[in-house]
Predict the structure.
Amino acid sequence: MDGSKTHPIDDGVAHKWLTEGVPDRRFPESSMEPVPAMRLIGEELVLDGIPERNLATFVTTWMEPEAQRIIAENLHRNFIDHAEYPQTAEIEQRCIRMLADLFHAPGETTGARTQGSSEAIMLGALSLKWKWRERRMSAGKSTDMPNLVFGGDVHVVWEKFCRYFDVEPRIVPLQEHRYTIGPEDLLDVTVWSNTGISRTVPVRPDGKISLPLLDDVQAAGVTPKQLKDDLARRLAKYISSPEVSVIVREIHSLRVAVLGEVNKPGRYDLKSRASVLDAIALAGGFSPYATRSKMVILRVEGSTVKRIPCNYNKVVAAEVEPETFFLQPGDTLVVP
């Protein structure tokens, strides 16, 4: 820097930027005092989402003031320099050893801190790639075509890892007969680097979810992967190359009702495909007055209700069709 030149402080520049917009390409000719600069940034951050309400985030949204103070008082340390800051390095390893013990990691623990889950996944997957390569080379096999298998509903950073580090992604789609999104399910919708849109949303009774910019989007009847692709396509009108992930937080759409002569009549949430026998077990079994041979399954099909006779004795003897044996979400089993 040229010490012969001075750079005046303009107290009014902060107020000017509130009306004209802050510089975003070049440094301004004048500087400003710390307090107006802090207030200017604060005014812009008001436009962001509120972290405490962002249930789709992967970061800590609140911590004790003492923890915040420790962080603020140590931001000037270069944590990677273990020779200069050995005690900081020991504190890091201490935390790593505790986490390893918590998750029952075998043997001596090796680890490092990261700034977030994305960095952790990148480093962990990269280590996985190097270990794979070592095993292949030891066996005299080719290392040209690494691949990684994962589900279609995972954190979007897994796909980024494959793209950045030359790994073929082999994404396993969710099978339609096993699970599709339904009413009352709870979804974590995450748009990479956009907390204003990312959020946890319930699927409404009409099968739709509501998101900023997109309003109502049909979610029921599709897989998380299909919804993820649909959201990315819709958001492309507003965001350049949006990266979207859809994770099912809670499943409530696989729900059946058991009524009549059972010990615990009511509605029950299922976690997977269930049979008539499963439903009776959830309801605590038959009451002493149950007529087991005259059960009925009520199934809504469009605007009509289908009545399916169900004989418990034939169910136990495996003498019934799958339609009678397996229940569908929304079915009601009536035990007279």
Observations:
- The domain at 183-222+230-250 is CATH 3.30.1950.10 (wza like fold).
- DSSP finds ten helices and twelve strands in the chain.
- The radius of gyration is 29 Å.
